[in-house]
Amino acid sequence: MLTNKEFWIGLDDTDSPEGMCTTWLGARLIRDLRAIGYQIHEARLIRLNPTIPYRTRGNAAIAIRAFGDPDIAFAHACSLVNRYADMRCEKTHPGVVVADEQLPSDFYFKAVTSVCTIPEAEELLSKNARAWKGFKLGRGLIGAAAAIASVLPDFTWEYLAYRDESRWKTPRQVNPESLFISEEVTTPYTWDTIDRSQNSVVCVPHSSDPVLYGIRGDSPFAVVHSVSCIRSEPYPWGQIWLTNQGTDAHLLWGKIGSLKEWASYRVIGTVLQQPITGIGGHVSLVIGDEGGELTCMAFEPTKRFRQEVRSLIPGDHIIAVGSFLNGTLNLEKFCLCSIERDEYKIAPYCKACQKQMTSAGVGKGYKCRKCGAKSVSPEIVTREREILTGWHEVPPSARRHLARPLIREKEEHWEDSFQNIT
Ligand SMILES: [Zn+2]
User: Fold this and answer.
1) Cα–ligand 1 centroid distance for 367 (angstroms)
2) CA 343 to centroid of ligand 1, rounded, Å
3) What separation in Å is there between the alpha carbon of 76 and the centre of ligand 1?
4) Are 380 and 28 in contact (CB under 8 A)?
5) How far is the CA of 136 from the centre of ligand 1 (A)?
6) Does domain 156-243 have CATH number 3.40.50.300?
């Protein structure tokens, strides 16, 4: 007997580095369910903890809120996973979950900021879910459950265009010029389509999955407007996802000395040494507080961001943001809260002769070689700082899916600027 009701269905861990994409499977499921009379009320793309080592690629899970028969939807989702998930990949362990209502939100918060285990997911599901199935190790049950448990105090949207199956694993045809136009038309309401400073395309993946491109933005209208400007190969369908991308949902406030591996933090500290550029162009920065010292890294792929890190000097107060891995914080962005004066000492100038004095010997001050005038103290010269206070972030090509781009800050500043005008 059919039971038509509202329900949630979640999917995770169907992809591999060689292909497939959980969002494609979710979008396919949405299309199939619609075709047999289901109503789709919401389609969520949920990113989970980006630092977990056994994730397959972007650590994305999906959850769909629908109206129709939940058991038929579950059976169909399982058959899609059987048919399309990349089961040969040793890291791919899909999960499908159906629930009559959202699952407890603390499971989502744990999955996005920390690490959940498969037994924890199974325990949650046995108490709260209607049906679930793990394939192979069933690690995808974690993401599928977390996506259904997700709460979105902040959210963004992404339009994903999916390629025709006959074109998978062939080079993507997307007109780059149209992407630049698309960005120009819809910025700041969309982001990460291109990287203007590097003149490069960001929204078209290089992997062999079914995604043609993805447009991220503030609203469904903004992303669709952006898509309307893009010229590309023909593709059968796209899907607008509601997502936790670009919201900093993975960040916790942390204190130096008590950070945990595989979590991502905002940490307040003072720059202790001049940043160092190491082998491969990676830049390291040491900050500290009363709890100790913390090494922060800006790796080579973060490109021009490294120059901003190099511009920091001892004494600067910053909020460092990034993932804590192997004892170092891998920077996603930082806020320069208060700027230290960049001062250095030189020998003073003689007031009479206008000539620079020279050292009169260790601890003896300075002496003018021409008239013999003496001075005890050096002259303090202030170098102009190359960096401004406020936030500095990695370029779009190096950005984490979950990292909130600074372009989104406009919303908070909008009222201020309005007051300045009136
Ligand atoms: Zn002199």
Assistant:
1) 8
2) 25
3) 92
4) no
5) 85
6) no
Tell how far the Cα of 345 is from the centroid of ligand 1, in angstroms: 19
pTM: 0.90
Report CA(349)–ligand 1 centroid distance (Å): 8
Distance 191 CA to ligand 1 centre (A): 61
| Full pLDDT tens readout for the chain, 422 residues | 678 999 999 999 888 777 788 999 999 999 999 999 999 999 999 999 999 876 555 678 999 999 999 999 999 999 999 998 888 888 889 999 999 999 999 999 999 999 999 999 999 999 999 999 999 999 999 999 999 999 999 999 999 999 999 999 899 999 999 999 999 999 999 999 999 888 999 999 988 889 999 999 999 999 999 999 999 999 999 999 999 999 999 999 999 999 999 999 999 999 999 999 999 999 999 999 998 999 999 999 999 999 999 999 999 999 999 999 999 999 999 999 988 888 888 999 998 898 999 988 888 889 998 898 888 889 999 988 989 999 999 999 999 999 999 999 865 544 444 444 43
Cα separation, 59 vs 325, in Å, equals 17
- What b/e string do you get for 350-374 counting C-beta neighbours within 10 Å, with b at 16 or more? beeeeeebeeeeeeeebbbeeeebe
CATH for 5-149? Answer: 3.30.70.2200
Compute, in angstroms, the gap from residue 380 CA to the centroid of ligand 1: 19
CATH for 251-339+385-399 is 2.40.50.1010
The alpha carbon of 307 and the centre of ligand 1 are apart by a number of angstroms equal to 41
Could you tell me the two tokens for 163?
A: 């390629």
Distance 374 CA to ligand 1 centre (A): 8
Rounded CA separation 258/284 (Å):
20
Structure tokens that stand for 404 in this block = 């909130």
